[in-house]
Specification:
Layout (H helix, E strand, L loop, with lengths): L3 E4 L2 E4 L10 H5 L2 E9 L2 E2 L2 H14 L8 H14 L5 E8 L16 E7 L6 H6 L1 E5 L20 H12 L4 E5 L5 E4 L3 E7 L9 E5 L10 H12 L4 E3 L4 H5 L3 E6 L3 E8 L2 E2 L7 H14 L4 E2 L3
This protein binds 3-[O-phosphonopyridoxyl]--amino-benzoic acid.
3-[O-phosphonopyridoxyl]--amino-benzoic acid binds next to helix 6 and strand 13.
Length: about 300
């Protein structure tokens, strides 16, 4: 059976799932989205994702034409129709159909669509070997312009960074903010680990990530990792970081819904730590994966 896509209250086979070319989501990137995952019939951090979706919409003054409960039902129905226990869920809310002209108030009603599909992951070997990433010239969007905390349909900033990374022979880019501080990667938050003691227990290390006000999305995986650190008593701080700090970290990793926790072993040609995925990173990845199979909103097919 062909993949079924939800659009405004109805389901359509993938090939017939279409929206208007006058939709401002397409014409102007005027809209918001979420990327969510389901693991073995459990939707991970669904409430957190929907809260972020509603907050992104609120900031751009977009009214989502349904309530949270109806959205949850629509997501679960879409998963059921596609018989997916493990899935990637893309929820998109656009400004809707309007004229040629920016004015959002000429769009009568927001468009909502939900795609659920199998997820394509980074190859396993990258988790074993770690990523080689590169700092790119494109800086992260200014928080005073399009705030990176809004998960909007304007991803050109990130796409340009991705292109620049590829041009530099890497698959992921490190973006700095306009002041030169570390912000995040194109679809992932960034963390580092620094040894502060003998290295015998987790208390001998500190986990660091930039504060999101420097220009990063408030990642839901990021938050889950911070909570895991609290539980295993791994010291944690949000800290303003430079490339120098990352170059001299003992471990670096990225977090995101798609990547989960992925080690970074090289940045701009500098080897990080021992040049292979670190033990704290591996510990956090293991704990994170355990959490995804335990916590979540359950549904049955
Ligand atoms: N930064 C940016 C810019 C992102 O887009 C993250 C960090 C990580 O956030 P979460 O909440 O996922 O931990 C993201 C998330 C996709 C896709 O299809 C993108 C994201 C998530 C899932 C899928 O490209 N970005």
């Amino acid at each position: 059976m062909e993949l079924q896509v939800y659009i405004d209250g109805k389901w359509y086979p993938k090939n017939e799932a279409k929206i208007s070319i006058f939709d401002h989501g397409l014409l102007y990137g005027d809209g918001v989205f979420e990327g969510i995952r389901a693991y073995g019939g459990l939707i991970f951090k669904l409430d957190e994702h929907l809260t972020r979706l509603w907050e992104s919409a609120h900031t751009i003054m977009l009214t989502i034409p349904m309530d949270v409960k109806a959205m949850k039902t629509a997501i679960i129905e879409t998963l059921k129709k596609n018989k997916l226990k493990d899935a990637y869920i893309r929820v998109v809310v656009t400004r809707g159909v309007g004229d040629l002209g920016l004015s959002p108030w000429l769009c009568k009603k927001a468009t909502v669509f939900i795609i659920t599909d199998k997820i394509t992951l980074y190859p396993k070997t990258l988790y074993q070997k770690g990523l080689d990433i590169i700092t790119v010239p494109t800086v992260r969007n200014l928080p005073e312009a399009v705030n990176p905390s809004i998960k909007s349909l304007n991803y050109l900033n990130n796409i340009l960074a991705k292109i620049e990374a590829k041009n530099g022979g890497c698959i992921e880019a490190l973006l700095l903010n306009h002041q030169g501080y570390v912000a995040e990667c194109t679809g992932d938050n960034v963390f580092m680990i620094k040894k502060i003691g003998k290295g015998q227990t987790v208390k001998d290390y500190i986990l660091l990530t930039p504060p999101t006000y420097l220009g990063a999305l408030k990642g839901i995986t990021r938050q889950a990792i911070i909570e895991i650190a609290g539980r295993i008593k791994l010291p944690f701080e949000e800290r303003v970081l430079t490339r120098h700090d990352l170059f001299n970290a003992d471990e670096v990793f990225l977090t995101g819904t798609a990547a989960e926790v992925i080690p970074v072993v090289k940045i701009d040609g500098r080897g990080i730590g021992a040049g292979k995925p670190g033990k704290i990173t591996n510990m956090l990845l293991k704990d994170f994966r355990a959490l995804t199979h335990k916590d979540g909103v359950r549904y049955t097919l």
